[in-house]
Amino acid sequence: MTLTPMRAARPARVVRAAAAALAALSLAACMPPVPSTPDAPTLDAPGAVVPAQSDRIVSETMSELAAADGAKDPSLLGERVSGSAATTRATEYIVAANGGATPEVISETMLATYTTGSATWPRVMATVAEAADAAHTPVVLEWVQDDVQSEYQLRWWAHMVPGGVLPAMPGQSTGADQLSLDTPGFTLTPEQAIEDYVALLNAGASSELEEAFAPDPYRQRMFEARTALAASAAPRSGTYGDTVTARIDEAFVLADAEGGALVFLPLDVVSDFNVPGAQLSLPASDKALLQETLKARVVHRYEDLVVLRIGAAGSGLLPTVVAADHNLVSVATS
Amino acid sequence: MKRKWLAPLVGLAGLALCAVGGVAILLRPAATVNAVGDLEAPIAVIPPEVVAFDGLLSISVTAPGAFDVRTARPVDVVAWAEDAHTSVVRGLVSWDDVQVDDVNAGGSYVADGDGDLWRDSRHATGETTIDPADVEPGVVIVLVSESGSSLGDVTLTLSRDRGNGWAWPVIAGGLSLIVVGLVILAAGLVESQLPTTRERERKGHDSVKKTSEAKKAKVDAQPKRKAKKP
Questions:
Q1: pLDDT tens digits, residue range B33-62?
Q2: A217-233 and A190-203 are packed helices; what angle lies between their axes, rounded to 10 degrees?
C-alpha cells in the first residue's frame, strides 16, 4: 500500500502535538503555586514592654537621676524623670542644701517589673527597686508613657510600708491588664476605694471608714501629725488642717495575678497651719523653700503616691496600702 | 501476533514516561526565588505574617541612604504609623513580585528613633539583610528612612519545592517499561527462530513414518522361514 503525502503528515502532527502536550504537562506539573500569605503568628511576649525595653528605660532613667543628684541640679531632669518625681527631687536638693536630709539614692537593681499588655495610652510601668540600705524599705517606682510617640517617664515613687506585701503579678512577657477605675470584680471598685481612702484621710481616725481599710503607717503618721499640730495651734486659737485630693486622672490600676488589683493613687496634700497674730518659725530647710515672709500662717504642699492593694470579690481582703510616700514640694504662706 | 504489537507499545509508553520526566527535570524551576517590590514611602512595614512565610530565607532591603530597622508589637505599630505615609508589604503577587500597598500617600513622616516602642532597633545604610529566624514571631518589622525619602525596594528570598519530585520515579517507571518491551521483543525474536509446534508435530510425524517404513523394510529383508510341520 502507498501512503499519500497528506496521510503521511498526519502522524507527524500527532507526534508533535503529543510532544507539546507532554512538555506542557511537565511544565505545569513542576511549577509550584505561589504561596498565599499565612496567618500572623501570635506574639510570644504580648506585653507592652519586654525586659530589653524595661532595662533600657530603667538604665536611662537612673543615669539621668544620678547626673542630676550628682550636680544637685533639677534642670538635668526632664527627659526620663518628670512630673512629681522631678518636682520632689528638686525640693530635696534645696532641703539638702539647707541642712536637711540628702536625697535618698534609688537603687538601679530592680526586684520586680510590672508592665501592661495595654494597646492604648497612657500606659504605666512599675518596678520595685531594692532598698537603698537597711534603714529603708524597697521603693515602688511608677513610669508613665503618655502616648505612642512619648518615652516612659518616671513620675512617682513610694517606699513600701513596713510589712507591706505586693500581690503576685502577671509576668512581664504577658503584662498585666491595665484597668479602668470603674472595673468591677473586686471587693470594691478602684474608684470607690480611692474615694473612700481620700475621705478617710480627710476625716481622720474617727471616720467610720477607718475600719474599711487595713491599718497603714502612712495615714497613721498623717493623723498623728495632724493631732499634734492641731493641739499646738489650739491654745492660741489657731487651726491646723490637711486637705487631701486624689489626682484621679493620674491614677492607674493594674490587675494582679490573684484576681485583685494594684491602684497607683497620686494625692495632693495641703497642710495649713494658722495661728492668728503669731510669728511662726520654720526649720532652715523648710524656710529655704519659702519665697515669702513668714508670719502667722504656713502652708505645706505635698505630692504623695499611695499604692493601694484591693482584693478579688469575695476574698474578704481589706484594701491595704502597700507603699506610700509623703513628699514635700513647697512651703508658702497661703 | 500479540507480541508483535505489545513490545513496541510497552516500549513507546516507557519512552513517553521518560520524556515527561525528563522534560520536568529540564524545565524545573529554581530552588530559590527572589521576589522584589518597591518601597515608595519613607516608612515600610513588614507584618508578622509575611515574616512567617514558609520557606522565607531572607528579607533584603535596599535604600539610597541610611535607615533604621526596628521591631515592635503590631498594635503599637498601627498606632505609631496611623497617619504616616507607609509602604506595607502584603505578600507575593507572583514568584517574582512582592505585593506592596502604599498607605496614606502624602501623609506624615515620623522618624522617632529613640521611642520606647521598639523591641529592637539598628541602623543600616544602603542595603541590609534580615534573617527571619532572628525576628521574634508576631512582631512587625518597621523600616524608617532617616532622610524621609523613599526607601527603595524589598527582596524576599524564598526556597520553594520545585514540584518535580515525581519526575525521577516516572523516569524509572519508563525505563522499566522499555526494559519490559525489550524483553518481550527479544522473547519474540528467540521464539521466531524455533520451529513451531505444527512444524515440530509435522517433523515428528515424518520421523515416525520413516521409522515404521524402515522397520517394514527390515522385516521384508529377513528370509521367510517355513513353518515346520509337526
A1: 999 999 999 999 999 999 999 899 999 999
A2: 30
Q: What's the full length of chain B, in residues?
A: 230
Q: In whole angstroms, how far apart are CA A183 and each of A3, A19, A263, B56?
A: 96, 74, 12, 44
CB spacing of B161 vs A22 below 8 angstroms: no
Contact A149, B116 (CB under 8 A): no
Q: Over the stretch A74-103, which tens digit does the pLDDT of each residue have?
A: 999 999 999 999 999 999 999 999 999 999
**Cα dist from A320 to A170, A209, A211, A221, whole Å:** 20, 13, 11, 16
Query: B211 by DSSP, 3-state: which?
Result: helix
Residue B163 contacts A where some CB pair is shorter than 8 Å:
yes
Choosing among A34, A53, A79, A152, which should be mutated to test the B contact, i.e. which has the most B CBs within 10 A?
A34
Q: How far is CA A52 from the centre of its chain?
A: 18
Rounded CA-CA distance A323/A175 in Å is 21
Q: What is the helix (H) or strand (E) element at residue A317, kind and residue range?
A: none
Q: B-chain residues within 8 Å CB-CB of A34?
A: 92-95
Q: Around Cβ A101, how many Cβ atoms within 10 Å?
A: 9
pTM: 0.81
Cβ–Cβ under 8 Å, residues A323 and A306: yes
- The rounded distance, in Å, linking the Cα atoms of A270 and A240 is 10
**How many other CB atoms are found less than 10 A from the CB of residue A32?**
15
CB pairs under 8 A between A and B: 115
Which residues from chain A sit within 8 angstroms of residue B162, using beta carbons?
Answer: 30, 32
